[in-house]
């Protein structure tokens, strides 16, 4: 591990927020990104093959944010010659579906309401679950490729196995070394709370399953509590399913061992939504949460902070990175 003792901008954390921030700063600021393990490591909140991109939120503000994020995703794809979004229709079920429909309609986005019979006709694998809202503009994000592309095109110096122990507005301590920086950006996920005094976040250990299914299937979200979602893996017969915010609160320094109760809930969700499928793997992933699931993107204690991703920020990654970059520029 080679570390300079002086840097323009230091970003702590090489998940999607940290790398998207570095990408937004490319060519404008000299950036060093410090990652405590490796980019895409299995204990990080950004690891895994896929994420959902959707415009569909009950809150129109998030719909508009997702629209702006989509423009930035497309720009990254064009600039890097990469496909990161794989268009995939999405079905939304449950008591929150009407609010999603209303917000999308108010924002002028494409959306349909399907009765139970039409759901069964057009998407037979999801028949029997009632009415749904169809969002044709959704997509599956290739999350692994996103990290690789951002890393390869951000122009930053990325140092792995650099565990930051302490920091302040202009100093970052890594082991026995101290880096002096003009600006420090903290995008350390669940570990940000230990670095930033008073950060109002908590960590939960969430569980996802990969099952083998036959035939193409759409993304789905069921807002019946506990909320369940699923999405296909492009160019694969694996389908991912998870219970949103179904895991226990943990210390991010602890062992990430699957929680039996959460696993039981996940198995029940699989039996309901993907009956007869073959369970291939159960994985765990930390969520860095705020009380209202809103994101923390601000300057505090002289630090630029991106935190509180709450399990739904990956789709907004380029937009949040651009906003964090704006905060960096504003400090000059």
What key attributes describe this structure?
FAD/NAD(P)-binding domain, eight-stranded mixed β-sheet, 8 helices, single chain, alpha+beta, globular, 332 residues, 19 strands
Give a verbal description of the structure.
The longest helix is centred in the N-terminal third of the chain and has 21 residues, at 60-80. A hairpin with a 5-residue loop joins strand 14 (219-222) and strand 15 (228-232). With 332 residues, the chain is α+β, with helices and mostly antiparallel strands. It has helices at 16-25, 60-80, 97-106, 116-122, 143-153, 192-195, 260-273, 317-330; strands at 6-12, 31-34, 50-53, 85-87, 90-93, 112-114, 132-135, 139-142, 157-159, 164-167, 171-174, 177-186, 202-212, 219-222, 228-232, 238-243, 278-289, 296-300, 303-307. The protein starts with 5 loop residues before the first strand and ends with a helix. Helix 1 (16-25) crosses helix 8 (317-330). Strands 1, 2, 9, 10, 11, 12, 18 and 19 form an 8-stranded mixed β-sheet that branches. It has an 8-stranded mixed β-sheet with strand order 6-7-5-14-15-16-13-17, with helices on both faces. Strands 3-8-4 form a 3-stranded antiparallel β-sheet. The protein is 27% helix and 31% strand. The protein has a domain at 1-86 and 139-201 and 291-332: FAD/NAD(P)-binding domain (3-Layer(bba) Sandwich). It is built from 8 helices and 19 strands.
- CATH architecture level-2 label of the domain at 1-86 and 139-201 and 291-332: 3-Layer(bba) Sandwich
**How many separate helices?**
8
Largest sheet: 8 strands, mixed
Helix content: 25-40%
Q: How many angstroms does the end-to-end distance come to?
A: 29 Å
Q: Per the principal axes of the C-alpha atoms, what is the gross shape?
A: globular
Radius of gyration: 20 Å
Show unreliable segments: none
- How much is the average pLDDT? 96
CATH homologous superfamily classification of the domain at 1-86 and 139-201 and 291-332:
FAD/NAD(P)-binding domain
Secondary-structure class: alpha+beta
Beta strand %: 25-35%
Secondary-structure element string: EHEEHEEHEHEEHEEEEHEEEEHEEEH
In oligomeric terms, what are we looking at?
A: single chain
């Amino acid at each position: 591990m080679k570390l300079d003792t002086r840097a323009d901008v230091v970003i702590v954390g090489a998940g999607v927020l940290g790398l998207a921030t570095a990408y937004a700063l490319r060519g404008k600021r000299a950036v060093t990104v410090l990652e405590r393990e490796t980019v895409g490591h299995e204990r990080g909140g950004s690891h895994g093959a896929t994420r959902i991109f959707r415009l569909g939120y009950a809150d129109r503000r998030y719909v508009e944010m997702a629209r702006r994020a989509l423009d930035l995703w497309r720009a990254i794809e064009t600039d890097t010659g990469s496909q990161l979004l794989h268009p995939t229709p999405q079905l939304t079920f449950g008591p929150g579906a009407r609010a999603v429909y209303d917000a999308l309609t108010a924002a002028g986005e494409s959306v349909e309401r399907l009765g139970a019979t039409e759901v069964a006709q057009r998407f037979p694998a999801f028949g029997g679950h009632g009415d749904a809202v169809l969002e044709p503009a959704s997509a599956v994000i290739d999350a692994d490729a996103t990290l690789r592309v951002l890393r390869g095109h951000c122009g930053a110096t990325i140092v792995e196995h650099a565990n930051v122990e302490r920091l302040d507005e202009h100093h970052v301590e890594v082991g026995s070394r101290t880096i002096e920086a003009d600006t420090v950006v903290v995008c350390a996920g669940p570990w940000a709370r230990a670095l930033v005094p008073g950060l109002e976040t908590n960590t939960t250990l969430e569980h996802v399953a990969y099952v083998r299914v036959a035939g193409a299937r759409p993304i789905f979200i069921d807002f019946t509590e506990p909320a369940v979602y699923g999405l296909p893996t492009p160019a694969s017969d694996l389908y991912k399913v998870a219970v949103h915010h179904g895991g226990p609160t943990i210390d991010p320094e602890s062992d990430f061992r699957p929680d039996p109760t959460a696993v039981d809930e996940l198995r029940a969700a699989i039996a309901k939504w993907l009956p007869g499928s073959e369970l291939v793997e159960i994985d765990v992933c930390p969520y860095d949460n705020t009380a209202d699931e809103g994101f923390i993107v601000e300057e505090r204690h002289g630090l630029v902070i991106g935190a509180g991703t709450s399990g739904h920020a990956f789709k907004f990654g380029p937009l949040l990175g651009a906003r964090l970059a704006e905060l960096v520029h504003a400090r000059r």
